[in-house]
Amino acid sequence: MGTGRISFSATCAVVLLGLIMNSSALHCNRGITSSFIRVSSPSVDMPFDSDVFQVPPGYNAPQQVHITQGDHVGQAMIVSWVTPDEPGSSLVTYWPKKSKEKYVAEGYYLTYNYYNYTSGFIHHCTIPNLKYNTKYYYEVGDGNVTRKFWFRTAPPVGPDVPYTFGLIGDLGQTYDSNKTLTHYEQSPLKGKTVLYVGDLSYADDWPFHDNVKWDTWGRFTERSVAYQPWIWTAGNHEIDFEPLLGETVPFKPYSSRYHVPYNSSGSTAPFWYSIKRASAYIIVLSSYSAYGKYTPQYTWLEQELPKVDRTETPWLIVLVHSPWYNSYNYHYMEGETMRVMFESWFIQYNVDVVFAGHVHAYERSKRISNNAYNITNGLCTPVSNKFSPVYITIGDGGNIEGLATNMTEPQPSYSAFRESSFGHGMFSIKNRTHAYFSWNRNQDGYAVEADSLWFHNRYWYPTTETTISI
Ligand SMILES: *[C@@H]1O[C@H](CO)[C@@H](O)[C@H](O)[C@H]1NC(C)=O
Ligand SMILES: *[C@@H]1O[C@H](CO)[C@@H](O)[C@H](O)[C@H]1NC(C)=O
Ligand SMILES: *[C@@H]1O[C@H](CO)[C@@H](O)[C@H](O)[C@H]1NC(C)=O
Ligand SMILES: *[C@@H]1O[C@H](CO)[C@@H](O)[C@H](O)[C@H]1NC(C)=O
Ligand SMILES: *[C@@H]1O[C@H](CO)[C@@H](O)[C@H](O)[C@H]1NC(C)=O
Ligand SMILES: *[C@@H]1O[C@H](CO)[C@@H](O)[C@H](O)[C@H]1NC(C)=O
Ligand SMILES: *[C@@H]1O[C@H](CO)[C@@H](O)[C@H](O)[C@H]1NC(C)=O
Ligand SMILES: [Fe+2]
């Protein structure tokens, strides 16, 4: 239940969003810096023998089971898991609820070495040709130990399909991480798919990038991600580039363990790709892969944005790890070079919302742009722009590095709401014109919304939104 007192240092009660067409100065010069007082306690990793890290019983029992969308439209699922002792089977047995018949899909396994760590047998299996909006059971393992899970496929892609996405970033594996995950699971809004904005296990914060931490993170998150897809974004803690350890292949542990359907969106690398899910078109970008002009990611995005058909998928959502608009004194302006490359495209193609992580706090921007600057004209202040996305930083999952508490002062006019607390978000699409975003902080009850906004779709209903901040 709600703890602490909530008050605001806001100078304007009503935040005027995009009232004026296109480029105009911001009317309201102060956003809200929440003065919520939290009990501050250090974020410490849960010990190795914690309940959440328990190894499932039985010889070679599959562990770290996780699923993600396996194609462009939501009719396939990638199932991944690890067997610790021997390869075992890479088959997934699956069947729709109530079906008498069972089906089998065949995957494969891989292993990798990192410094002196050798991974278990990491299996990846794509289940194709699934029916939409259907509950499936699936089973992995063989011999004496099989484990059974289930998932529900997304509804068919279409413009008015309601769907609720959870938003989690920078989770790690501390007691706070566990609270964030629990709050997501217990939310009455019932998220159906997680949009994960990067930085998973934080193994690299440990000596020799202790890859056992990747395994414990896999076991910790299984209770959610074995049952609903998490859509992955690569963060800086996934790079694991460490020449001093002889590790010079970026993203080796991450890309060995977490597969994504990049090929089905014409991408040539797993770090940038897109999917359609229900009424949303989701574009995942990589802050840590080249994005300058002529690079593969740049070329892909340039060709990708015109493909988005807003009459089919009204909601255009972008995930990227490093935020483009961030008023904390952490990672300040790290997202700037990518913003310079891509911001004008996001305005041109009316992106609805950009979710980022990296900064361990919460922040929501107004609809603003800052792309008029051309070296000599001095036009380098963010301005209201009704065709711009809202930028939301949701890197507040609760990892070992702790909260970002130090903010730039005064709060910049583009920043609508910011608070340094752990939590998660929900983006609930209602129809082609309306989606409801809300942010829950871990100190509150599961149903409490510390910040929220009714989104108006930028293609179908590009009108003023009213901020509701309680
Ligand atoms: C890896 O090397 C480190 C440092 O020498 C050592 O502490 C650790 O126990 C080793 N781990 C394995 C799995 O050999
Ligand atoms: C099942 O376990 C028993 C005892 O550990 C073992 O002898 C047997 O080979 C296992 N069966 C399979 C199919 O793995
Ligand atoms: C993690 O959260 C779950 C669900 O709330 C709880 O059952 C479990 O005991 C927690 N574990 C730790 C180590 O906090
Ligand atoms: C990758 O996608 C292309 C079409 O986009 C397809 O022709 C090709 O077979 C796919 N490759 C793999 C390995 O799935
Ligand atoms: C830069 O912007 C100014 C003012 O908008 C304009 O006059 C000038 O031509 C621009 N320079 C270039 C190189 O486009
Ligand atoms: C906050 O960040 C600024 C800029 O990096 C720094 O000068 C200041 O000392 C920091 N304040 C605290 C309390 O850490
Ligand atoms: C779309 O959803 C919003 C919010 O629930 C609702 O107010 C509006 O009437 C809906 N539009 C249509 C056409 O149903
Ligand atoms: Fe990060």
UniProtKB/TrEMBL annotation:
One Gene Ontology MF term: acid phosphatase activity
Record's keyword terms, sorted: Glycoprotein, Hydrolase, Iron, Metal-binding, Signal, Zinc
* Known catalytic reactions: a phosphate monoester + H2O = an alcohol + phosphate
- Any signal peptide, and if so, which residues? 1-25
Show the InterPro entries listed in the entry: Calcineurin-like_PHP, FN3_dom, Metallo-depent_PP-like, MPP_PAP, PAPs-like, PAPs_C, PAPs_N, Purple_acid_Pase-like_N
EC numbers, comma separated: 3.1.3.2
Ranges for domain Fibronectin type-III come to 61-156
Please provide an example of a Pfam family that matches this protein in its UniProt record.
Metallophos_C
Q: Which family does it belong to?
A: Belongs to the metallophosphoesterase superfamily. Purple acid phosphatase family.
* Protein name in the entry: Purple acid phosphatase
